[in-house]
Amino acid sequence: MADIAVKSGRVIDEAAARARVLTGFKFRDTAFRWLTLSAAVIVLLLLGGVIATLINGSIPAFKAFGFRFLFTNVWNPATGQYGAPAAVYGTVITSIIAMVIAVPIGLGVAIFLTELCPHALRRPIGTAIELLAGIPSIIYGLWGLFVLAPFLQQHVQPLLIGLFAKVPVFNILFAGPPYGIGLLTAGLILAIMVIPFVSAVSRDVFDTVPPLLKEAGYGNGFTTWEVISNIVIPYTRVGVLGGVMLGLGRALGETMAVTFVIGNADVIPTSLMAPGTTISAAIANEFTEAVDELYTSSLIELGLILFVITFVVLSISRLMLMRLERQAGR
User: Fold this and answer.
1) pTM of the entire structure?
2) Angle, CA of 208, 316 and 272, to the nearest 5°
3) Which of 278, 280, 287 minimizes the C-alpha distance to 91?
4) Under a CB-based contact definition with an 8 Å cutoff, are residues 287 and 299 in contact?
5) In this structure, are residues 309 and 91 in contact, taking their beta carbons and an 8 Å threshold?
6) CA distance 202 to 27
7) pLDDT at 8
């Protein structure tokens, strides 16, 4: 009887110990779930706070101008008349120029590093390109103002003006005196800043392609280009598109580098070589000078418009990614 009692006591102790361990696991899981939930809620609250601040700050300008703010091309603090088209136009055009230049170059860099570059050089070249993403934007702005703009003014812009002088449409886009600064220079600076993002993300997703797929392509007689175009890019298109959209988001919101080289003129130029402005550049340049409520509110409404543009672009990219994932059966 004594042995049975001892064994019963051990069983009870083991069950209690197991219950304590399971309770500890459950407590840690619950705490971890609430911790991650809290992090997500904090981010959403911060985002909501930013939106509420922008909307609240924009109310005076919206009351004064309504939707005319979006369509009236005027920005005159002396008369108290403000409109967003010039800044919106500059933001969109410089971002388009940047992506047109940065996407093919960034993809080319990623393809070279993953498919063609000798293994010994992949890491140093990849690291050097990624370091470009860490350079402060004001450094790009200074370099653009003192090096790139004079070079474009003396060598590139006169060449473009002469080359497209008799080509319809292009003779308008590349017309006027070569200032050096302007929309084209700002787009080039943005492209240089965006390339590391596109190439780094694309290189990482290219590395995820199973070697067996590429070997099967080479085994069937594919060339390197055919393997890349028929296997690598289709397999990684979702990730590549994500990298492109990441770069576009950077281009839309870049401030200091653009402010240095765009010319900061509140006009809608027809020539890409003429000075213009962007939303972020206008806010950075004029916020300290905004002494009255309507002026400040107009700048805040510009910020709200930039937020909406970025949100729409990222939403469209997310929808495209979801569509691609459905088509891939994922």
Assistant:
1) 0.85
2) 100
3) 278
4) yes
5) yes
6) 41
7) 62
